């Protein structure tokens, strides 16, 4: 086996990077179709609803 049983996925990496950027004082909203999961960590909205 070359990876741990629960490897980091792309959503978690994206959320972590967004949190780091937000901690620098920036407003961050992730545009996604996976709002339910990502919004547990950082602001997230359906990408089709962002203007």
What does this structure look like?
The protein is α+β, with helices and mostly antiparallel strands. It contains two helices and two strands; from the N terminus they run αβαβ. It has a domain at 10-18 and 27-49. It has helices spanning 10-22, 35-38, and strands at residues 30-32, 44-46. Strands 1-2 form a two-stranded parallel ribbon. The longest helix is centred in the first third of the chain and has 13 residues, at 10-22.
Tell me briefly what this model is.
The protein is of the alpha+beta class. It has helices at residues 10-22, 35-38, and strands at residues 30-32, 44-46.
Strand content: 5-15%
Order of helices and strands: HEHE
Report Rg: 13 Å
Shape: flat
How many E strands?
2
Given the helix and strand composition, which structural class is it? Answer: alpha+beta
Question: Mind sketching the topology for me?
Answer:
Elements: H1 10-22, E1 30-32, H2 35-38, E2 44-46
Parallel strand pairs: 1-2
Characteristic terms for this protein:
flat, 51 residues, two-stranded parallel ribbon, 2 helices, alpha+beta
């Amino acid at each position: 086996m070359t990876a741990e049983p629960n490897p980091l996925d792309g959503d978690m990496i994206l959320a972590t990077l967004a949190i780091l950027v937000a901690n620098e004082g920036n407003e961050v909203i992730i545009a996604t179709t996976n709002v339910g999961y990502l919004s547990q960590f950082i602001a997230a909205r359906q990408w089709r609803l962002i203007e």
